């Protein structure tokens, strides 16, 4: 059971992050400045901090706070998501493991 939980946790976390990124068309207004998050000590060895971000939800920006995550494979690195300005507005590129 412990092995199953260890395997499922990264998959669930990836699904949550992907789901929170959503399918976003271009947004006309730029996102607010990122919030400063106080990051405490890691809750377990090897934990990786996945920083918070502004998500577009129901016509407005909503802050999604950061959280600790387990690497899906050894030496995996979290690449944070970011908002990018395009000619049609602002577009979100979700974070991912590399």
Description:
This protein is 20% helix and 31% strand. The chain is built from 1 helix and 8 strands. Residues 7-21 have low confidence and may be disordered. The radius of gyration is 15 Å and the shape is elongated. The protein has 98 residues and is an alpha+beta fold. A hairpin with a 2-residue loop joins strand 2 (53-57) and strand 3 (60-64). The strands form 4 sheets. It has a two-stranded antiparallel sheet with strand order 1-4. Strands 2-3 form a two-stranded antiparallel sheet. A two-stranded antiparallel ribbon has the order 5-8.
Distance between the termini: 27 Å
Strand order of the largest sheet: 1-4
Number of helical regions:
1
Please tell me what the overall shape is.
Answer: elongated
Helix percent reads: 10-25%
Q: Rg to the nearest angstrom?
A: 15 Å
Instruction: Provide mean pLDDT, rounded.
Output: 85
Reported for the largest beta sheet, the result is:
2 strands, antiparallel
**H/E element sequence:** HEEEEEEEE
Oligomerization state: single chain
Q: What fraction of the residues are assigned to beta strands by DSSP?
A: 25-35%
Unreliable spans are 7-21
How many strands appear in the DSSP assignment? 8
List the helices and strands and how they pair.
Blueprint: H1 2-21, E1 48-50, E2 53-57, E3 60-64, E4 67-69, E5 78-79, E6 82-86, E7 89-93, E8 96-97
Antiparallel strand pairs: 1-4, 2-3, 5-8, 6-7
